[in-house]
Amino acid sequence: MGIVNFLARRGSIEPGLELFGFAFENWVFHELCFFNAYAHRYADIAYWRLSSGVEVGFIVNHIDRAIESKASRRVRPDHLKGLRELSAAHLSARCDQWNAESPWALDHRAVGF
User: Fold this and answer.
1) For the whole model, what pTM was predicted?
2) Which of 3, 33, 79, 81, by CA, is between 20 and 30 Å from 57?
């Protein structure tokens, strides 16, 4: 996101802007990938989306774990709609959420994939 934003001359990424949300989700993805490689887990990381548009940002190993990231200081119930729908459809899924206010509230040991 940094190089793309620089080349597109978008300026800085500030909290509250849509680009900040994309950057935060990108950062979470990179953290998951780095942990995956460092821990030699070889987990598949994907996303889950319904035709209605409801989605979950990260799915680990065919729904062993679902992780949603939100670049918001306050996570509202509607932010977690995807996790609720996935949990209802796949009862064995373990669901977690990261937000920008406290991104380390869910650490790598808790992710446990």
Assistant:
1) 0.75
2) 3
